[in-house]
Amino acid sequence: VSSVSHRRFIIIFIGGANGESVTQPDDRVTVIPLSEGASLLLDCTYQSSVPVRTFWYVQYPTEAPRLFVRDSEEQDEEGDRKGFKAKHNKSSYPLSKSSTQLSDSAVYYCAMSPTLSHGMFQEIQKPPQVRVMVRSGFVMKVTITCWWFGGKVWAKKH
Questions:
Q1: Which are the contacts of 38, defined by CB distance < 8 A and separation ≥ 6?
Q2: Where residue 145 sits, what CATH number does that domain have?
Q3: Which residues form the Ig-like domain (predicted)?
Q4: pTM above 0.85, yes or no
Q5: Could you count the other beta carbons within 10 Å of the beta carbon of residue 98?
Q6: Are 108 and 95 in contact (CB under 8 A)?
Q7: What DSSP string runs through 39-98?
Q8: What is the span of the domain harbouring residue 126?
């Protein structure tokens, strides 16, 4: 039986403890334009000395953030992911869509975590600031407080 340390956060923008880092332009905040039909490319680059898993999270107005795309899953062409593409490159995981819709207006977060190795899994949180653009063009700035729940999770090797 080995001990696995695990930290979980409400809002996720993660850099690892082994020299990993994730970079998203514009201070980790991207405001989606409301003009329909525009193409979209959200860049996410990272550096890591260990294998990583990458993720995109989305937060729609008045909703909590949730997992949008992960690097290990097939691209889903249903629901709110329809038309979005995420292709994993050597050190980046960009998210794109050829023609946006008003319903795509949201805050998008790029995240990463090291794969489970040597019995350790660590996540480190940087609290983001979120700007929400409403249809009138008014920009509101919101600071989100993040909590983490620490503890140990026990894993058995098979």
A1: 99, 100
A2: 2.60.40.10
A3: 25-113
A4: no
A5: 12
A6: yes
A7: -EEE--EEE-SS-EEEEEEEE-TTS--EEEEETTSPPP-SGGGTTEEE---SSB--EEES
A8: 2-155
